């Protein structure tokens, strides 16, 4: 599988210096679609590579958006901390929000979407009611979707703030309740790092940050941000990988939480795609969690295609099939077969009858 | 090479193939579409624009894609696609010309953060810019269409691009959006104006696009320094009159009508306050097109108190 221009340049920015105008054009487009354009800006700036003015305007614009989003995200963390004061001692900021709150180097170059939060299931009702009081509302859903979330999923339906429009996803575990991967949910709350700047909020310890990133990427079937998430994972390893005891603790936590297999996939594909520095003994140890042949070979082929920028220039003939296979796999991992069949049949029916499109149009009319 | 020098077959071939690259200073756009209605509109509205090189850097790659028609009696639909990613919902294919204009505006508003991008029309006279912020229905486009043919140079009907580094405002000299009753009104008032066939039943009612004057297109790379911020309001039966307004009110309205004020943050605030600080801020009420020219002549001559 050949590397995209974007990945080549992100790994070796000096290469960009020789690009013709059409090459810069492609580079910016791939970076935009992969949600890695602010990172591209920073990587080129750090390497002292000057983009042509037209391309530079887009890179600088992305830098500005990243700055604005970080500022907004910090403000959002303030608001969430205030809303949840006293609700539960265990409210964990996940993913992008955590990287930002911890001020990790990767946070600066990242673009943000929703804020994700994890709270113990027993605190869920209290958390939801406090968020409602503070202006977050559950977006209106069909009765089926509401039940889908409440009964089977690992999170509440997305909550949107009435005035600010920001979206908050409140999770009570990391994988759907119906998932095939047996996650030891209570163990998630064992090793938290309280955030001094946001009383009442905390993040995972470094090993669990990596485990969550791995689980998220290698369980979900949506790859719109797949490459971005792979770079997150790579950055986490590069940032923490040389800390004393990091790998021992990470492998141990993977075993304790029941996440050895997703961690194996994550580190394997991250090393293959981005050259992530993972000690060989860690890879060997985790390889024991790999599924039997021929699954690994199949997954290698699928991930190599799916973890490309989702841009027409990176679309290979096998890519749609690979994405479909991973989408079906993610649903297979998510829920038992009878439920899966029911769920997918319903989605297909709604798409066929145009119900989904009508709802999208109604939503757009409201926004406009 | 100007687009009008391209024969119809070559235009169609480019739109259906690798794309037609338009030089819309300060941006370039590559447009693709199989729809004949779109080719007609591009040929009409962008006739005076030069083509950009095919192998250069392109700011916005866009496409008006025809959607497959499942049932033969259903109307053909089309969708705006930004560099391979479908954006917005599908609309009837006959709306392709307005989809292109709105889609292109969206591209600029969502990505061009080197400027503070405001929803406003801009015209120029002697190097001085007239900025007309526009809550919908204010009669801004009608006013813009008339002035653009009567001594003022059109910079933009929809997007004022304010450069924080220089304080200058840029436009692209693209077409003017006329809506509903104003289409007939402008066509009757300006016999020389070239106006596209009206498209009925869009989200904004019936829309027709007026081709920018050739001179405006030729000088589209020349920015201007804002001298007046005028809030237009059309009101049936009203006599044309200016009224001074508070600078703070004008600044707040411009911020509200800006697409990326929140992205630029403090810089956005500073460029806006600097602009209203050195411009005259006025409200302008009008009810008849023939009063527009004398009113704005007086404004340009400094005769408005």
Write a structural description:
- The complex is a heterodimer of chains A (368) and B (305).
- By secondary structure, chain A is α/β, with parallel strands linked by helices.
- Chain A has a domain at 205-335.
- Chain A has 17 helices and seven strands.
- Chain A has helices at residues 5-11, 21-33, 37-47, 53-84, 95-101, 105-108, 124-133, 143-152, 206-219, 226-240, 246-257, 260-274, 280-287, 295-306, 319-334, 337-353, 355-367; strands at residues 91-94, 115-118, 136-138, 159-161, 167-171, 192-194, 201-204.
- A seven-stranded mixed β-sheet of chain A has the order 3-4-5-2-1-7-6.
- In chain A, a hairpin with a 5-residue loop joins strand 4 (159-161) and strand 5 (167-171).
- In chain A, helix 2 packs across helix 3 and helix 3 crosses helix 4 (53-84).
- Chain A is globular, with a radius of gyration of 21 Å.
- In chain A, 39% of the residues are buried.
- The mean pLDDT of chain A is 91.
- Chain B has 305 residues and is an alpha+beta fold.
- Chain B has two domains: 3-112, no CATH class; 116-301, no CATH class.
- Helices cover 31% and strands 30% of the residues of chain B.
- Chain B has helices at 8-16, 36-45, 96-111, 140-148, 181-189, 214-218, 247-256, 261-264, 266-278, 292-300, and strands at 20-24, 27-32, 60-66, 77-82, 85-92, 116-125, 128-133, 153-156, 159-162, 169-170, 176-179, 199-202, 205-210, 225-234, 241-244, 280-286.
- In chain B, a hairpin with a 2-residue loop joins strand 6 and strand 7.
- In chain B, helix 7 (247-256) packs across helix 9.
- The model of chain B has no long low-confidence stretch (mean pLDDT 95).
- The interface between A and B is medium-sized, with 30 and 21 residues.
